[in-house]
Structures are given as C-alpha cells and as structure tokens.
Amino acid sequence: MERASFQLDDVTNILARTPKVLRQMLEGLPDAWIHCNEGEGTWSPFEVLGHLIHGEKTDWIQRIQIIVGDGDEKTFVPFDRTAHLHVNRHKSLETLLDEFEAVRNKNVRTLKTMVLTEHDLNRTGKHPELGVVTLRELLATWAVHDLSHVQQIVRVMAKHYHDEVGPWKAYLGILQSK
C-alpha cells in the first residue's frame, strides 16, 4: 500500500469534514447511544466531542502560532486531555455539535489564511512530553487525531450492541477491538 505524502490541503479537507461527519453520526440519536462508553475510565461519544472542542479552543491553532511565531520560546503549553469532562456535563449534544462546528470552521479559516511555506512546515516547537516536533507533524497529527476519535466513537457505538448481535459477534471485528 502506497502512503500519501503530506499535503496541507488534505489536512484542511479532513479537518473541515469532521464536524459534518459527527453531526450525521450523532444528531438525533437517543441519549443511550450518545452517553454509552466502553467501561470505567473510557469516553462516550458525547465526551469525545467535548474533548475535540477543548482541543480546538486551547491546543491546535495555539501550537501552530507558537511554531511560526518569531519568539524564542517555542515550548507548548501542556494540554489537559480531561478538562472537557467537567465543562460540558450539562450541555446538550446539539449545543456541542454547534460549538464544535463553529470553532472548527474558525480554526480551518485561520489555518487557510496562514501562508505556510515548505520552510514553515519544517519549523519546530517543543512538545512538553515528546520533545521537538515539526509543524508538518503537528498538522498531520491534527488530522489523524480527528480520524482516531471518529473511529473511537464508531467503536463505542458498535459495542453498545455487543450482546444484542448474538453469535454474529464472531464476525464483527469492531466488537473485538479496544
């Protein structure tokens, strides 16, 4: 299998589509589907959506700006992966879907207005756990992060019917995965 090389347009296309994908998957479903999870310490589709919103507000664009900025300090602020668990508890799914769409659209517009050259894509910042990373790696990670969480939501929702599928479970790999 041939892997695609990094293309900024591909990243922005994936990022722009994620809010629509999640709205199509989640909007109008009963709460049991939105709030199901894989057990203690795992996230429901509702919580994953909250996590994505938190990242949009506090992480991706800010780190891009740190990398392309002129300052000497290129260290990223640590990202609180669980901050969303307390913030969104009393919001509706529709509110979260609207919020994600709005903040993501704003961030994609911001990203598109940056004139990022090949030189810029090779510029670096310092991740608090991973060390030195390039802008290209950060942008690729943003897109793959979306895809990973879409996969997570699909997996959690499939497992909602884990017992109901009966003997077909043996043929459904998604029910075997973690």
Q: Just give the CATH class.
A: Mainly Alpha
Mean pLDDT: 93
CATH topology: Four Helix Bundle (Hemerythrin (Met), subunit A)
Specify the CATH homologous superfamily: dinb family like domain
Rg, Cα atoms, Å: 18 Å
- Strand content is under 5%
Entry summary:
InterPro entries: DinB-like (IPR024775), DinB/YfiT-like (IPR034660). The protein has 178 residues and is mainly alpha-helical.
Search tags:
single chain, 178 residues, mainly alpha, Four Helix Bundle (Hemerythrin (Met), subunit A), two-stranded antiparallel ribbon, 8 helices, 2 strands, DinB family protein, DinB-like, DinB/YfiT-like
Structure notes:
This is DinB family protein. InterPro entries: DinB-like, DinB/YfiT-like. The chain is mainly α. The chain has one domain: Four Helix Bundle (Hemerythrin (Met), subunit A). Helix content is 56%, strand content 4%. It contains 8 helices and 2 strands. A two-stranded antiparallel sheet has the order 1-2. A hairpin with a 3-residue loop joins strand 1 and strand 2. Helix 1 runs antiparallel to helix 6, helix 1 runs parallel beside helix 8 and helix 4 packs antiparallel against helix 8. The model has no long low-confidence stretch (mean pLDDT 93).
